[in-house]
Amino acid sequence: MFRKPFRVKSSTITRKSIRRKLRADIIKQFASLTEDEVNQLIPSKEELTATIAITHSKEEVVIYSIAGEPLLFTYNNTLYPTVYAAWMLPHLLLAMITWPNVFDKMISGADLMLPGVTAVSHVEWVKHQACTIALSDCLVPVAVGLTAVSRQQAKDARMRGKGVYVLHTYRDYLWEFGTKCKAPTQCMINTYSLRGSTDTLQLENLAIANDLDLCEEQESIDQSGMNEREGSAALNITTTATDDSKQIGDPCKVDSNNDSTGREGATEESTQEAEGTATENSEVAINPTDTMDQLYQKCFMKAVISCLRNKTELPLLASSFNRIMQSYCEEGENLNIKKSSYKKFLTFLKVMKEWGIIDFKDTARGVQSITAIQRGHPEVKGFAANYPVEEVTEIPSESNDDALVWEKGPIIEELYMANKQTAFIFSNLDWKNKLFNVADVRAAITSYIKAHDLINPHQTRLVNLNDALGNCLLTKNDKGNALSWEEIMKRFTAKMSNCHQIILPNDDRPILRKGKVDLINVSIVRRSGNKKVTLIDNLESFGIPVDKFMHTLQNMAAASTCTYSVPGKKSTGTQVMVQGSQIKIVSRILIAIMNQTVPIEDVGLLAWYIRTDPSHFNQVIGSARCTRKLITV
């Protein structure tokens, strides 16, 4: 990553708030550090400089330096120590131990392969966990990287394949960005995360070898075989030939014969110790981001195998594939892309494409579809052989609202109360403190018109208004004294006092409220960075459980959701926010809820309860089925 020169975009001395945030991130990500060690890494009285750099591969990183020495850098929103910090705190990360000769390959741009790993500082590790790479002769960290496989995957692969993605090495351009001090001749890693002697290091490696049934093979390697292995391609290090490659020797400068003898002696002592004592496994603090990444990868592999077994027709919408992944979450698990290192589902798909498992393309603006799945990919074969995947009989489609299971939606009825202006219509009824629905009002108006013989004999759709109706309904802009039945109904109900009755889900007791129905407000706003978010208000007035609504919305939109208490609002409801423009998905969920009580033929009536952009809502329910005009913002 830093084997070629990088460009400095900006460099500033950080404020105290940035320093506090960095310290908090260090404590959160490196939980094993003590307060004194954090102070050693980020001294309070030293200037902290943040440098934004652009690498040769056009990736942006932030480098944090103390007194001109880079100690930390961020990549994909994750903190990594430099070799300077690794020398200061050797136990900061998981350590992978390799042969000294491998260092020349890594400085040339190669990643570390599993056959080159001779020992580790922890028995267990996870995939995409930050780690350092140290040399076996002096245990000095000379590189920082990211594990390519977990311990279990390495075991299943019999220690074959790629082990660590190398991000930064000793003597690369990030090292040259600092004081260029030489590597120490010895690092006592065994006094930190190994919790024991160097023999413990070899013993833990021997435990892995026993699991892999490789002990016999390892013990049979003699001196000549070891030298041949170190000098041959059996190291399985993939070397990238570049013009600016730097060929350097072992930083520790230890004779290889002594190193070989030391390895044999350490192995013999470790074997004796293993027969008499048991080693203590040090606990690894797992980053929550790594845990979410593993969950995404596991559900992705299960979804891929499910699609292959069910012969799913391709291309498949990425949103549909995401819902298949969601279905493979175990109880208590939930996929949240914002809590992973990918941050966006499209970024995750790009990584899977780089791995060669799937291929996808943009079928429309902002819409991706998976076009191919590689059945013969080693990762797919290995996962299918070790992890049973339950078959999915039906893949949810974009238009399948039945997948949204809601027990019952709210029953809403608009009611009216007569007042002094409208009481004459209900003169033959006990109208005081009585509620009328739309049908009751229409029946009362019809009865009054027929009783007073006000129907126009030439045009029956018109009504000739008498003095009482004229004083109540006519305005100064009206010409004549005739109105249609629909106009009379509309104007008369507008003159009456409004109220409404709601029967909430799982509660048969009607709730009577004054005024018109409070609308569910769905709006799109722009936040900092020109990012769009969708806000939903007033769900609780309709008895819609916010937690369940958020969970459904999060799964369908594949975006993070959260709630806010908005100050100054008259209603006591909670505002729901979801990343991106999600009006169509929100409308679909609300329709699925309301359809429990509103017939699908009358789905246009839902427009009275949702305030949003008409164009978005009409795309969902169809403009031909919208019988009443939407109320817009």
UniProtKB/TrEMBL annotation:
Keywords: Cytoplasm. The keyword Membrane does not apply. Residues 240-283 are annotated as: Disordered. Residues 520-594 form the SUI1 domain. Residues 414-498 form the DM2 domain. It holds the Pfam family SWIB_eIF2D. Belongs to the eIF2D family. This is Uncharacterized protein.
